[in-house]
Amino acid sequence: MKIKILIKLLISFFILIKPINLYAEIKNSIVIKVSNQIITSVDIENEIRILILTSKETFNQENIDQKKPLAIKALISKSIKKAEINKYAISKYNKQDLDLIEKKAAKQFNTDKNGLKKIFKENKINYDSFVDKYKTELLWNTLVFTIYRNKIEVNPIEVENTLQKILKNSKDVREFMLSEIEITVKDLNENKLNEIYRFIEQEGFEKAAKRFSTSLTSIDGGNIGWFSQEILSKEYLNEINKINKGGVTKPIKNLDSIVLLKLNDIKIINQKNMDVEKLKEKIILDKKDEKLKLFSRSHYSNLEKKVLISFL
Question: In order of start, what are the domains of the chain with their CATH numbers?
Answer without folding.
Answer: 2-149 (1.10.4030.10), 157-299 (3.10.50.40)
